[in-house]
Amino acid sequence: MKRQAILAAISLSVLASGSVLAQEPQGLSVTPEEFEAKLGYQHGTVELGSGMAAINVPESMRFIGPEGSRRLLTEAWGNPPELAVGVLGMLIPAEVSPLAPEGWGVIITYDEDGYVKDDDAASIDYGKMLKELQEATLAANPEREKAGYPPMTLVGWAEPPSYDAAAHKLYWAKELASGDEPEHTLNYNIRILGRRGVLVLNAVARMEELGVIRDRSQEMLAAVEFKEGHRYAEYLPGTDKAATYGITGLIAGAAAAKAGLFKLLWVGILAFKKLIIVGVVALGSMLKPLFSRWRKPAPAASAQP
Fold this sequence. Notes:
Elements: H1 32-37, E1 45-48, E2 53-56, E3 61-64, H2 66-76, E4 89-93, E5 106-111, H3 126-146, E6 152-164, E7 169-178, E8 185-193, E9 198-206, H4 210-223, E10 224-226, H5 247-252, H6 284-287
Antiparallel strand pairs: 1-2, 2-10, 3-4, 4-5, 5-9, 6-7, 7-8, 8-9
């Protein structure tokens, strides 16, 4: 299959997650074995973002720092350099090489948009949200096709959104389809809320790998923590910046619409060995009014999503 990646001028990390699926090495100047040996795998506890957070790397995973991640994303997986900007590191499964056809990885970035209030978490109607995001995705297809890319379909939640209000951690997953491709894409998302922003962990793989990634996601949720001075509970109202969106926005895409307008919509990456991040669409006017409608009619105060 043809390998291709398209990155727009700004980065959207929430609606469908700007993460990538591994692909076969793209013109390496050394052997795959030599290339992988220099990625700098790390184990144990590693720091993220100059000590802002830490991850106790699970035994089932390996960590690659910013430079190794940049080389893997650009030199081996053929992505444009812009995609590696701001990457804090990657988690790679221990049992498979990231250069193998079945390889995959989790990209770690940080959105410093401020403290994300979570008081809307229990009242979100995720069924309604899914339906309207599906409609918005379909409505964007004419623009994608006009740009020469296949239509995309948000099939459904591969893992419904779940928010742990005590740990301030959120995860969800989407199943995506592209054109007439028989294989669907799994897009797994993890968010760790902090005092000044959100740690973003994104993984894309084939739907058949849902079970493995679901298990690994629980390990990663437990392994990543903000350090003292950066924790969610340490937020100082009136002193620290607050984000302009809540849990709804983290899932639906408000972080990319700080000015009230979506500049683009990343609705996924094609399945097995294809990277296509598509395409430039103005959807703020379509999705922003929906945020207030994704509330349950009669939420229970203690309910969890």
